[in-house]
Design brief:
The complex is a heterodimer of chains A (115) and B (115). Chain A is an all-beta fold and 115 residues long. Chain A has no helices and eleven strands. The radius of gyration of chain B is 14 Å and the shape is globular.
Chain lengths: 115, 115
């Protein structure tokens, strides 16, 4: 039982390049989330997926797209990377979006640098 | 909109001393409240959560937090710090229902434990 896994762990991009961050969970959770973490700003929600087949914008969605490929996988795509997207990206999952009593479990993160 | 304020971006304590990390939230409606811990190069791990049951919440690793509605606070404490407690701590608040449900994180407090 690996929990939430993310690939890659590190990535360096040039401005304008595209890439997809992968996330998978093996806990049979319904809801999945993508956050970015910037120094002094805590975590901010980019997109989330309440259940398979649905996605919704979070606080900072501009410049990103997501795909809920199936119940296990939730990917985050940067179509044209910008230096402002240099950050640490975390994927998380929870049993359900419907109850705050459900804990969100986080992956180890992807450190992305955009030059 | 919900906001979470963590007073003190860096806190240092001696091993064996009391740990007090401060968190205040802004909301007319008591939110659900969480404390997460992040060890270096790892994802976030839930320490404890308040979901309107008991106002004093006990978590893992000897941490606890008390919800005080009159002060809109949810401070994290531990009676005796251990070297292994050195990490970054995030307070988070959850408000809303259904698709509008989101977690808002504070900016984090880095805890250093001195020998």
């Amino acid at each position: 039982n690996a929990g939430v896994t993310q690939t890659p762990k590190f990535q360096v991009l040039k401005t304008g390049q595209s890439m997809t961050l992968q996330c998978a969970q093996d806990m049979n959770h319904n809801s999945m989330y993508w956050y970015r973490q910037d120094p002094g700003m805590g975590l901010r929600l980019i997109y989330y997926s309440a259940s398979e087949g649905t996605t919704d914008k979070g606080e900072v969605p501009n410049g990103y797209n997501v795909s809920r490929l199936n119940k296990r996988e939730f990917s985050l795509r940067l179509e044209s990377a910008a230096p402002s997207q240099t950050s640490v990206y975390f994927c998380a999952s929870s049993s359900s979006l419907g109850a705050w009593t459900d804990t969100q479990y986080f992956g180890p993160g992807t450190r992305l640098t955009v030059l | 909109a919900q906001s979470v304020t963590q007073l003190g971006s860096h806190v240092s304590v001696s091993e064996g001393a009391l740990v007090l990390l401060r968190c205040n939230y802004s909301s007319s409606v008591p939110p659900y409240l969480f404390w997460y811990v992040q060890y270096p190069n790892q994802g976030l791990q839930l320490l404890l959560k308040y979901t309107s049951a008991a106002t004093l919440v006990k978590g893992i690793n000897g941490f606890e937090a008390e919800f005080k509605k009159s002060e809109t606070s949810f401070h994290l404490t531990k009676p005796s710090a251990h070297m292994s407690d050195a990490a970054e701590y995030f307070c988070a608040a959850g408000v809303g229902s259904g698709s509008a449900r989101q977690l808002t994180f504070g900016s984090g407090t880095q805890l250093t434990v001195l020998p």
